[in-house]
Write a structure and sequence with these properties.
It contains 14 helices and 13 strands. By secondary structure, it is of the alpha/beta class. The chain folds into two domains: 178 residues, Rossmann fold (3-Layer(aba) Sandwich); 176 residues, Glycogen Phosphorylase B (Rossmann fold, 3-Layer(aba) Sandwich). The protein has a seven-stranded parallel sheet. Helix 1 packs across helix 14, helix 7 crosses helix 12 and helix 10 crosses helix 13. The chain is elongated, with a radius of gyration of 21 Å.
Length: 363
C-alpha cells in the first residue's frame, strides 16, 4: 500500500498546536508502518527540511507550488502520482484526493467564538472543514467533544469519526535541567501566574485581566500576571484594557517566547491560567502539568476530557470565579500540592506513541 502524508505544516520553524501535532504524528508513525506492507510519501513545500531520519520505505516529495499549495499543488500530485491512502493531519483535504482519505479535525473554534475571527476567516474555515468531512472516508477527531460538534453542526455520520486523543511527550532535557534565572523576563524574585499562548479574544485574555484585577483588589495578592505569546485577533482591545488597568505595572507582556523560555516560565509560575472560550484539545494544560504547574482552566468544550479532575475548572465568563479559584490555589499549599500531583498523573494518560499507533490502525 502506498500512503501519502501532507507534511507541509510539520516542519515549520516556530510550530504551534496543529503544526506540532503534524510533526509528532509523522515522527511516531515511522515505527508503526511496516516496510513490508507500506510505502510512505511525505509531501513538503519548497524550502522545508526534515530534522529526523526516515525509514527506507519513506520518501520525500517537494511540491513546487507557491500559492494554493493544497488545492492546486497537492491536488495535481494526487492526479499525476496517486496514492492508495492520503493522510491530512490538518483538516484541509485537496479537491483531488484518493477514495481512502483520512483527515484530522482539531476543533470548530470559529463556530463557537465567531467574535474572535474575521468574517472571511469564518467562511473559509467552515467551507474547508465541511468539504473535508464530506470528501474524507475517515475523520479523526481529537476529542469526543469535537466529534459531537461535527455530528450536530455538520451532520457528519458518526461511523466516519474516530476519536484519537492527541499525544504528549515531555523531553527529558526539560525535566532534568536545573531551573535557571528568569530575570530577563523582568520578573526576578517575583511570584507570578502565567498564560502562554496566542494573546487573542478566543483565549479569553480580557477575563484573565479582569480576574487578575479582582485578585489584586479583593485579596491583595503580591503576584504579577505574565502573558506570553504572539498577538492574535482582537489584540488591540486587549492592549487597551491592559494599558488602562490600574494594575498595568503588574501585568507583563513578553510577546513570543522560545521553547526553553516557555518551560522556564511554567516551572516558575505558581499557576497556569487557561480559561479559553473553546478548545479542540488543550495541549497547554498537559505542558503545565508535566512540570508541576497547577492549572486553572475552562470547564467547557474538550477541556474536561483532557484535564479531568486534575485541574480547577471554571466558568470562563466569570472573572469572579476565576479569581476565587486562583486565590484558593495560591493561599492553600496542601490544596495546591494535591492539584500538582493529580496533574503529574494526568499527563501519563497521553502519549504520541499511542496516538500514532491508533492512527496506524486506520490505514
Amino acid at each position: 500500500m502506498k500512503i501519502g502524508i501532507d507534511a507541509s505544516r510539520a516542519f515549520l520553524k516556530n510550530r504551534t498546536g496543529i503544526e506540532e501535532y503534524s510533526y509528532q504524528i509523522i515522527k511516531h508513525l515511522r515505527n508503526e508502518l511496516d516496510a513490508r506492507q507500506y510505502q510512505v510519501v511525505l509531501y513538503l513545500r519548497r524550502g522545508q527540511e526534515i530534522d529526523f531520519k526516515l525509514p527506507q520505505n519513506w520518501t520525500i516529495k517537494i511540491i513546487q507550488w507557491p500559492r494554493f499549495w493544497t488545492q492546486i499543488g497537492l491536488s495535481l500530485e494526487m492526479l499525476l502520482n496517486p496514492v492508495d491512502t492520503l493522510l491530512i493531519p490538518a483538516h484541509t483535504v485537496p479537491i483531488m484526493h484518493p477514495r481512502n482519505t483520512i483527515v484530522v479535525v482539531h476543533g470548530l473554534e470559529y463556530e463557537f467564538c465567531p467574535q474572535a475571527y474575521s468574517r472571511l476567516a469564518r467562511i473559509y474555515m467552515r467551507w474547508t472543514i465541511k468539504k473535508s468531512c464530506k470528501w474524507a472516508s475517515k475523520i479523526i477527531s481529537v476529542s469526543e467533544n469535537t466529534k459531537k460538534d461535527l455530528i450536530r453542526l455538520y451532520k457528519v455520520r458518526a461511523e466516519k469519526i474516530f476519536v484519537i486523543y492527541e499525544g504528549y511527550a515531555q523531553e527529558s532535557r526539560i525535566m532534568n535541567q536545573e531551573s535557571r534565572e528568569i530575570s530577563k523576563f523582568m520578573i526576578h524574585d517575583s511570584r507570578f501566574i502565567a498564560f502562554i499562548g496566542r494573546v487573542e479574544q478566543r483565549k479569553n485574555i480580557s477575563k484573565v485581566v479582569e480576574a487578575f484585577e479582582l485578585l489584586k483588589e479583593k485579596y491583595e495578592t503580591e503576584h504579577r500576571l505574565v502573558l506570553a505569546g504572539r498577538p492574535g485577533y482582537g489584540y488591540e482591545n486587549i492592549k487597551f484594557q491592559i494599558s488602562n488597568s490600574k494594575f498595568c505595572d503588574d501585568i507583563i507582556e513578553l510577546g513570543y517566547i522560545g521553547e526553553e523560555e516557555k518551560w522556564e516560565l511554567l516551572k516558575n509560575a505558581d499557576a497556569f491560567l487557561f480559561p479559553t472560550l473553546y478548545e479542540g484539545f488543550g495541549i497547554p494544560i498537559l505542558e503545565a502539568q508535566s512540570v508541576g504547574c497547577p492549572v486553572i482552566a475552562s470547564g467547557n468544550s474538550s477541556i474536561p476530557e483532557v484535564a479531568g479532575k486534575s485541574a480547577l475548572l471554571v466558568d470562563p465568563d466569570s472573572a469572579e470565579e476565576i479569581a476565587e479559584n486562583i486565590h484558593e490555589l495560591l493561599s492553600n499549599n496542601d490544596f495546591k500540592n494535591a492539584i500538582i500531583q493529580k496533574g503529574l498523573e494526568n499527563v501519563k494518560r497521553f502519549s504520541w506513541e499511542k496516538c500514532a499507533r491508533e492512527i496506524g490502525l486506520l490505514f
